[in-house]
Amino acid sequence: MVEERIEEYSFVSDGIPVKIKITRKEGEFVPLYLVEVPKVDEKTRAIMEEVREKLITKVPIRTFEAIDQTTMESMKRNFYFSAVNALSKRLRGVSTARIKALAGFIIHEMLGLGDIEILLQDDSLEEIVINSSKEPVWVYHRKYGWLKTNIRVKSELQIENYASSIGRKVGRQITILNPLMDAHLMSGDRVNATLFPISTCGNTITIRKFRRKPWTITDLIGNKTINFEVAALLWFAIQYEASIIVAGGTASGKTTMLNTLACFIPPNQRIISVEETRELNLPNFLHWVPLTTREPNPEGKGEISMLDLLINSLRMRPDRIIVGEIRRKEEAEVLFEALHTGHPVYSTLHAETSEQAITRMTSPPIEIPAQMIASVDAFLVMFRDRRTGIRRVFELAEVIPTTLPTGVEAVKPNVLYKWNPRKDEIEKEKESVKLIDTLQLRTGLGREEIKEDLKEKMEVLKALVKENISEVNQIGKVIGTYYVSKDKLLSLIRKGKLWDIL
Questions:
Q1: Per-residue pLDDT tens over the stretch 119-130
Q2: What whole-number distance in Å separates Cα of residue 32 and Cα of residue 23?
Q3: Pairing mode, if any, of strands 125-130 and 138-141?
Q4: pLDDT for 120-166, tens place per residue?
């Protein structure tokens, strides 16, 4: 059978050396993602099982449920080194590298998802999908799209056990009575699971992986997702408490952009975020309190909904409120009530254009009155090219109140910037009718002063890109310095000494 090798690369997963081969075989309609790890003979496997059982007797697996990530990582390290010590005593003459690899296999089975843990360590993957035990695991590769792996989960029971284990660690449950589950891994990766017969071919697990290094404004400018001009305008708008909704289709980068923009919030303001699954990752010195929902227990008690958290967040003296996604009318009403009481809000919404975003918000099931939507300062619309996988800011639009010929009050978008796919550039479309006027009113600055402020912000952003400062906490420190001592920051940038503050 003819095999075409597309790419090879290697990494280490908890001491296990892993080689990945991406190939195309004759008769296969999608490329293959082949995982190669050290082989383990039956005798060694039996010793590994003995070591695993001894470790379990020391600390019951229940201990690993419903604890925070830091504690989990610490306990995982302790187990790993205990496994290394135990294996070293049993396997005399075996190399240290081999011992570490065997310990890694044990930890993956004890505390993780078996071979799926290896896939979670590959930064090139966006999605890991188990459709059933009857077919191999699928992955979505950032460069090659959907690929079929050589990894299988041995049984439907094993898939259910993996799903239950994931759920218990974050206080969620999946059962025959409740066969659908949204949860997240300790690493923050989002998980959806379903059980047979709801998924008719078998139990499923879908893991949406998030980058271990969060995207920052430097990354997004560098890969042309956004340009300096739009980034500076959004920074200025967020600094002076504009409310922004990030719209876009599935996997267009809405949450990534929301997370990136949140870094522009001044560090002396209290941020409350409300999400169904934890996805935001803000600089560690921001005054940020993340809240997440909780599903009811089997008796139907203990549920904490988005609406509950939103209402509660208003009692926590927030300066800014971030909501993971607007989905329901009740949540939208509370969000807009918060906006009307002076709280800048930021959220995401499924919509392909700013016009569609307004239509979706004014139509069922959200159905917010047009007068309320007029209080949103801007819609930032994201786009993902399905063929190439690139993500771009598609539109930046302000919201303009209008009156229809029938006399009904409505709102319409005024698109300020739009992506030109032929040139792959974000171009200015129209002048601002409302946003700049609103920001003038809030700041007391004239238009020329605003232009000068935007130039300074672009200077900072260009310096970040030039110096390749792309770690989220480093970006946060630069932005924080800008707010506290702008003249000092600009002076360092002009002297080429930006790294001096990091």
A1: 999 989 999 999
A2: 5
A3: antiparallel
A4: 999 899 999 999 999 999 999 988 989 999 999 999 999 999 999 88
For residue 362, give the 3-state DSSP assignment: helix
Quote the crossing angle between the two packed helices 42-58 and 69-90, to the nearest 10°: 130
CA distance 106 to 90: 15
3-state secondary structure (DSSP) of residue 386: coil
pLDDT on residue 298:
67
Rounded Cα distance, 286 and 272, in Å? 11
Q: How many CB atoms sit inside 10 A of residue 76's CB?
A: 17
CA gap 275, 281 in Å, rounded: 12
- Tally DSSP H helices, then E strands, for the chain: 16, 18
> Tokens in use for 175?
């059962």
Query: With 60 as the cut, is the pLDDT of residue 496 above it?
Result: yes
Token pair recorded at residue 285: 């010195």
pTM here is 0.80
Q: Are 492 and 501 in contact (CB under 8 A)?
A: yes
Higher pLDDT, residue 211 or 251: 251
We find that the CATH architecture of domain 217-443 is: 3-Layer(aba) Sandwich (3.40)
Residue with tokens 């130039």: 455
C-alpha 206/C-alpha 11 separation (Å) is 23
